[in-house]
Amino acid sequence: MELVTFETAVEKLCADWTLDVAKLLNDAGEAVAKRSDVLRGKIKSLPVPQKSDEKEISQLPARINEILGQESVRLKGLIEMKLVIKIDVKARRLTIDGSEMRGAITALRR
Question: Does this model's pTM top 0.90?
Answer without folding.
Answer: no
